[in-house]
Amino acid sequence: MFDFHRKSFVFVTCAGGAQPMLEREIRALGLRPEAARPLGVALRASLDDCLRLNLHLRTAHRVLWEVLRTKAENADQLYEAVTALPWEQAMPADGYLTVVSSVDNPTIRDARFANQRVKDAVVDRILAARGRRPDSGPDRRGTVLSLHWQGRSVSLSLDTSGEPLSNRGYRTMPHSAPMRETLAAACLLAAGYDGRGHLVNPMCGSGTLALEAALLATGTAPGLLRENFAFLHLPGFDPARWQALRDEARGRARPTARGRIVATDHDPQALAAARHNAAAAGLEALVELDTCDFRETAVPEALRRAANVLIVNPEYGLRLGDEEALKPLHAALGDFLKQRCQGYVGAVFTGNPRLAAHIGLRTRARLALMNGPIECRLLLYDLYAGSRRHQDE
Ligand SMILES: C[S@@+](CC[C@H](N)C(=O)[O-])C[C@H]1O[C@@H](n2cnc3c(N)ncnc32)[C@H](O)[C@@H]1O
Fold first, then answer.
1. Domains in the chain, ordered, with CATH?
2. How far apart are the CA of 204 and the centre of ligand 1, in A?
3. Is the pLDDT of residue 152 over 90?
């Protein structure tokens, strides 16, 4: 059933708004994105391609490989269609199954019922063939099936990632309101950071933006940091092939970055978390961390002919009262960008447009990016070099 070389419909999910960056990443792997959808990018690819997508993509959440496309009016028809597939060849009888779904069908009031019917169909089939039933539950540690059922149209996919790809494995010490790693990567790419100029990240919190920048600047595949992917649990999976892909990716990673990566925060606990996470990622030598108010950040002279990016993710002030207190901070951020960051692209990721208005600079672009359920903006500013001289490369 799982021919690793057969091409199938693949849907790679990402944060809403990150599709253009994801499409570019897919193209860079030599694959051809077919369509951007509201929550991801569609293409045709083999399971072997999915291994590479899981290993290399920075902005993707999950890589879904379609195994069944059919029509079903109701849950009984869904069960019949799913149980017709040879699941006994697709997962070990002592495996672990997780089913997730997004359902919009008039006969289904609770998506958990659709999950249950898919799970029953797979488990009953394996029980009949092997005399044993696999375990199941919500943990995403084994085989993960993803059901998309819209009206009568059913698409059932193997989630080849399992745990979302944002869980890189390095953020062992979170701090307040950390960004998802995949969203941080999308912000960096959208700001034009390509790892060749400097990257400065005041208000760094647990260091997600700086660490994603370090991965990007060294050409390190983000999947190298993770142990588990759902495709590892497929019968027919070839560990030697996976090892070869990992070795190749490791061989391409550079030990140093061309530009500097500077991250600061005024909260010593945030710095402790950032330091801890940098060590967990093996990137502590690449990221220069300092405890200070953002205004005191030592911004390196911009490198010429390179995209130097200063990126900040200030608190949004979603609770009443906080917003007032954050207005002067945003005004000061505008002054800091204007006076201290010439030659940089300024990038501010915020969920609060009212506060963003206090930055007081003209934006070059305002990109919408979803942070979970919150619609955020990545504001980009061109901070032209004034009298300050540029350092040559
Ligand atoms: C929303 S969090 C950043 C989260 C970060 N992107 C991450 O992924 O962990 C905002 C950070 O700004 C820091 N901060 C707030 N005011 C600051 C100031 N005046 N100077 C420096 N850091 C500040 C806070 O300590 C907090 O860590």
1. 8-159 (3.30.2130.30), 181-219+255-383 (3.40.50.150)
2. 5
3. yes
